[in-house]
Amino acid sequence: MNQHCILIGAPVDSGQSNPGCLMGPASYRVAGLAATLEELGCTVSDRGDVAPRPAGDAASPNPAVHHLAETIAWTGALAAAARDAMAAGFPVFLGGDHSLSLGTVAGVAAHAREKGRPLFVLWLDAHSDFHTPVTTRSGNLHGTPVAYLAGLGGFDAFPPFPDPVPVERICLFGIRSVDPDERAALRDHALTPVDMRELDERGFVAPLKGFLDEVRAANGLLHVSLDVDFLDPSIAPAVGTTVPGGATFREAHLVMEMLHESGLVSSLDLVELNPFLDERGRTARLMVDLTASLMGRTVFDRVNRSA
């Protein structure tokens, strides 16, 4: 394929409490992400790692929140980097904890607004990340990006989100860990995750195909945010928030292959890789392989039987 992939490192470690995610971008590079994409016919530009803006003063009414000013600094820098990269190609954001998506999705949303196209978001994660800085009990801001992009309150210290994404254009996929406050917020905002129970019952194809059909019908841009903990920890141990019962190797590749075949994905987050917790680079290599499936790697070319 002739996709121009732009790699952007986001060594963000401020959104959670397990040090190590700042090493994620280097691990993806060592695992051969650029070479893998080039083998698939992509052109690759590596713009290096983003640096956060100078941290200003910031305070939260919630005493549990930590690293607020630092996370806001990352949000502004990554939003600018994402907006610029969207105009030049297909950005792949190498994280870093999931708080990086506060910035990446903001930049993507700004680009979508400029193009007059609706933004859709596919959130591949064990968690719904639907807290706000006011409701989080852990104080970990990596649990807040979906609430931010959906336009919820409580983000007064952050830059205003450029164009909030309506909940009907957000698909939380593979969810299996939601606390009571998030559950209530999801219910109040009519956002129903595609959780692992639904995927066990219906399989992966039908729910994902339904969402992709909506993106296509709206001529939307699709941002995919892939958290390591979407995967079962038996195949992807390098994450500080492991939750049993995640996607298997084949299920995860199926999702990526369907995304490629849709031709709809316009940007990608790879988040929560903590190399300190990995086993000889196993998780990093799997995430690179999944990215390759998203960009077109297949065992055998399939005939499009729906044509």
Describe it.
This protein is 36% helix and 16% strand. With 307 residues, it is of the alpha/beta class. The protein has one domain (4-294): 3-Layer(aba) Sandwich (Arginase, Chain A). The protein has an eight-stranded parallel sheet, with helices on both faces. Helix 5 (145-149) links the parallel strand 4 and strand 5 (170-175). Helix 8 runs parallel beside helix 9 and helix 9 (249-262) packs parallel to helix 10 (282-294). The chain is globular, with a radius of gyration of 18 Å.
Topology:
Elements: E1 4-10, H1 24-30, H2 33-39, E2 43-49, H3 68-86, E3 90-95, H4 101-115, E4 119-124, H5 145-149, E5 170-175, H6 180-188, E6 194-195, H7 196-202, H8 205-217, E7 221-227, H9 249-262, E8 265-271, H10 282-294
Parallel strand pairs: 1-2, 1-3, 3-8, 4-5, 4-7, 5-6, 7-8
Helix pairs in contact: 3-4, 8-9, 9-10
**Pattern of helices and strands:** EHHEHEHEHEHEHHEHEH
The N- and C-terminal alpha carbons lie at a distance of 20 Å
Total number of strands? 8
CATH architecture: 3-Layer(aba) Sandwich
Strand content: 15-25%
Helix fraction bin: 25-40%
Q: How would the global form be characterised?
A: globular
The description of the largest β-sheet is: 8 strands, parallel
At the first level of CATH, the class is Alpha Beta
Give the helix/strand class.
alpha/beta
**Strand order in the sheet with the most strands:** 2-1-3-8-7-4-5-6
- Briefly note the CATH topology name: Arginase, Chain A
Number of domains: 1
pLDDT averaged residue by residue? 96
Output the keywords.
307 residues; alpha/beta; Arginase, Chain A; 8-stranded parallel sheet
